[in-house]
Give the backbone structure.
Amino acid sequence: MLRLTVADRILIVDDGPDARATLEAHLKTQGYEVLSAASGADAHAILARQKISCMIAEARLFSADGGSCYPGRCCGIQISLSLS
């Protein structure tokens, strides 16, 4: 089971600004440092320069199989969320 500490940095990748903002606000109230990206390309740019503990991403923003994420740079867990 993945256990994150409050000091961990989470990257949110979603092209929906409302979904990104809602999730980011919630995680920040829990004490996490949160970065967000609106596209797979934006996420890759962040991953190239930042150490990320976990990434919550809309899989379709990457390759069809979700495999274009940087191996070893993400936690490798696919999470489905419903914010409605």
